[in-house]
Specification:
By secondary structure, the chain is an alpha/beta fold. It is about 35% helix and about 20% strand. The strands form 6 sheets. Strands 20-17-21-16-15-22-23 form a 7-stranded mixed sheet, sandwiched between helices. The protein has a 5-stranded mixed sheet with strand order 3-2-1-4-5, with helices on both faces. Helix 7 crosses helix 13, helix 8 packs across helix 10 and helix 8 runs antiparallel to helix 11.
Length: about 600
């Protein structure tokens, strides 16, 4: 068992100079002393479930050491209604632990305060989170601690940002009873709630309703964001900005689905019938291809909804600046995945620095809940988050043996240099390296890559490889040093969560520049120990610029590949022409 600390403290404890110490001070001092003599030894397991995007993570000694989404392990996209039992089991086993070795289990909802009737109907208990047939040991009820949902989101961004203090803005669909919150992450580590807006005023549910109106599913908000630049929009009168935030004329409704449908009906009333989704089965590819049509009316709605969201978020960012006086801003919640709005806030230069965690949506709620319990227990900061490749990884020995077993021709000689050469020849391939990322963005661990200077690669990726709508945009991975050439300023945006105007080298970024002249960028630090950075350096040598098209390594309807077996299957089930697997290179003879 890991070391634990008693919740009981001597109320009469005093410091060396005779001053009485508050219990929090004693606790922080205790952990600080332990940290100086070989580590704290506290383990906190975070689990997020069971609505969608379930995940699990483990924090040890103030560091997030592993995290993975349930969908990646069970191959069920978004893992809707699933408990993250496989994710939790992997986190423990990857560290050689059992559930008995964990001090606390963090759950990112206060279950007895959930007002949404649909969410409240989910039965969440220790047996469902940790089935005894898989875990053996059953945690005590007191070992599972509920953390407020929006506070979990706030902790997921502030506690890993590296900022000493910051304004914190959380915008999602719904928490226990709120949809938007504004916090102040203070210098002593506390997160103070400043403002909140109820779930019926949720900007996330407003955007979700518009997403459904445009002909997408409720979890495809990213498609509406990508469609918006094809239309000419205007700020909609549905949201009124006030000195204290914003207002909406939305009645109190029992569930988030009721609020979403309220917005669908409002848009139907104001703009006409909702768009209808269409598919066509293509015998040549054996896929149901998306063939939904978007006329000027629908693209105008998409553009208007996006512009309205941008306007409200900018207003809330200004309010956050006014209330906190901070130079740093932290964003999280599902709406923080809206790269367009994030980019608008960045360009506005209200703050010196902005941090959005890669898993800003509910995937990251388990991480935030665990981080908050860590802080509450120790009073100590966590190690800032950099690399999101915190999931399953596979050794070169394992992959080499697998390729040999399957009889797949391969090479391990100068593989990165060969990949750069193949990209220069216009070929599209896959990249598999390190642990799988947590969050919705592939970041050079499980990616499909291509030459961004070849504009035709966008259609090839959409039509042939990803089997998706032709208008959907792509983004690049690039070395940090290249951002001044591409965007006119140095940038450090490692999680692909900001869309910015391409002001510079657009010629070499043709395939990743959207119709409005913007792109969603991932910057990569020039680390010689990172194979992905080495690839970008080699691409620079070969092509003259250090950037590649980067999109998630999955085929239509599936989660991002996790295991090498899935990567090999997806490679041969698609038109991809080569694949890098932990130093090995495989290819198709044609």
């Amino acid at each position: 068992m890991a070391d634990t600390i008693s919740p009981f403290h001597d109320k009469n404890s005093v410091s060396g100079d005779g001053e009485r110490l508050e219990p929090f001070t004693i606790l922080a001092f205790y952990w600080l002393m332990k940290s100086q003599v070989g580590g704290i030894g506290v383990r906190i397991l975070g689990v997020s479930a069971p609505y969608h995007d379930g995940s699990a993570c483990l924090i040890e000694d103030g560091e997030l050491v592993c995290a993975v989404e349930e969908e990646r392990l069970i191959r069920n996209k978004r893992a809707w209604g699933k408990f993250p039992v496989n994710a939790a089991k992997w986190c423990l086993e990857s560290r050689g632990l059992t559930l008995e070795d964990v001090d606390k289990i963090a759950y990112p909802w206060e279950r007895d305060k959930i007002q949404d009737r649909t969410l409240a109907n989910y039965e969440v208990n220790s047996r469902r989170l940790f089935p005894p047939e898989l875990f053996g040991y059953q945690p005590r009820n007191a070992q599972i601690e509920d953390v407020d949902h929006h506070l979990s989101h706030a902790a997921s961004t502030f506690r890993f940002s590296g900022f000493p203090s910051a304004a914190i803005l959380i915008i999602d669909g719904t928490g226990e009873s709120v949809g938007t919150t504004l916090y102040h992450g203070q210098a002593d580590g506390t997160i103070k709630l400043l403002r909140s807006w109820s779930s019926n005023l949720s900007l996330g549910l407003f955007y979700e309703g518009a997403t459904q109106y445009a002909g997408f599913s409720k979890l495809e908000a990213g498609k509406l964001m990508g469609l918006a630049p094809y239309g000419v929009g205007e700020v909609l009168p549905y949201v009124r900005l006030t000195e204290d935030g914003y207002e909406m004329d939305v009645p109190e409704l029992p569930t988030q689905e009721h609020v979403t449908q309220y917005w669908v009906q409002r848009l139907i009333k104001d703009f006409g019938p909702a768009n209808r989704r269409k598919y066509e089965y293509e015998l040549a590819t054996c896929y149901n291809q998306e063939k939904t049509e978007f006329d000027e009316r629908i693209t105008k709605v998409a553009a208007s909804v996006q512009l309205t969201l941008d306007t409200v978020i900018l207003h809330l960012a200004r309010l956050a600046k006014q209330l906190t006086g901070e130079d740093n801003l932290c964003l999280a919640g599902g709406v923080a995945l809206n790269c367009t709005s994030n980019g608008k806030v960045l360009v506005e230069q209200l703050f010196k620095d902005i941090f959005v965690p890669g898993p800003a949506n509910d995937t990251g709620a388990s991480i935030g809940a665990a981080a908050e319990l860590w802080y509450q227990a120790t009073g100590l900061p966590l190690k800032p988050l950099k690399d999101l490749g915190l999931g399953p990884k596979f050794s070169t020995d394992y992959i080499g043996a697998l390729l040999k077993k399957l009889g797949i021709p391969h090479s391990s000689s100068n593989s990165i240099e060969v990949v750069a050469k193949l990209l220069g020849e216009g070929k599209i391939g896959a990249w598999f390296s390190g642990g799988i990322e947590i969050g919705p963005r592939a970041l050079g661990h499980r990616s499909i890559i291509a030459n961004p200077a070849l504009g035709a690669n966008k259609d090839r990726l959409n039509i042939d490889v990803k089997k998706r709508e032709t208008w959907r945009p792509y983004g690049p991975s690039m070395l940090e040093e290249y951002t001044e050439t591409a965007f006119g300023q140095p940038l450090d945006l490692p999680y692909m969560l900001f869309t910015l105007p391409v002001t510079g080298d657009r010629q070499n970024l043709t395939a990743v520049t959207h119709v409005d002249g913007t792109t969603r960028v991932q910057t990569v630090a020039n680390n010689p120990n990172d194979p992905y950075a080495n690839l970008l350096n080699q691409v620079k040598t070969t092509l003259g610029f250090p950037a590649v098209v980067n999109t998630s390594f999955n085929i239509a309807g599936e989660p991002v590949v996790c295991r090498p077996e899935e990567a090999i299957r997806s490679f041969y089930a698609s038109p991809l022409e080569f694949m890098y697997l932990e130093g090995y290179l495989i290819w198709k003879e044609s």
